[in-house]
Amino acid sequence: MRFRLNGREVEASVRPNVTLLDLLRREFKVLSVRRGCETGECGMCTVLLDGKPVRSCLVLAVQVDGRDVTTVEGISEGGLHPVQEAFIEEGAVQCGYCTPAMVLTAKALLEEEPSPSEERVREALRGVLCRCTGYVKIVRAVLRAAGRSG
After folding, report:
1. What residues contact residue 46 under an 8 Å CB cut-off, 6+ apart?
2. Model pTM?
3. Are strands 68-70 and 2-5 parallel, antiparallel or unpaired?
4. Per-residue pLDDT for 146 more than 50?
């Protein structure tokens, strides 16, 4: 199978039952895609598939044949993405475990809706669990990034 990983064409041979999470971590050594619950509940393994957030633990690797997969490494070429800058400026990172998934989810939201309300930001982020921050700084960071993109 072939697909684009962070804008680069890649190829892999996989068994039908291998998840995208396992393919990214084992074959391509993309460790920003975190292993969490492996049932789709925590959102730690979120990546963008054709620009939309998905839980990579729930996607079979064979399902991405011919598609675009973006991890946090793919949004920061040539410098930090505005969402990453806003996360730093707002102190929206503590342990950092959920940060890649939060950043990708926020990026997808802002591409779809450049000026979301606070309620909309909270709704978009609800699928990614954070045990450290309480979400206040994360929401502020997304709203700050929205101010830059709008």
Report:
1. 33, 53, 54, 55, 56, 100, 101, 104, 105, 127, 128
2. 0.95
3. parallel
4. yes
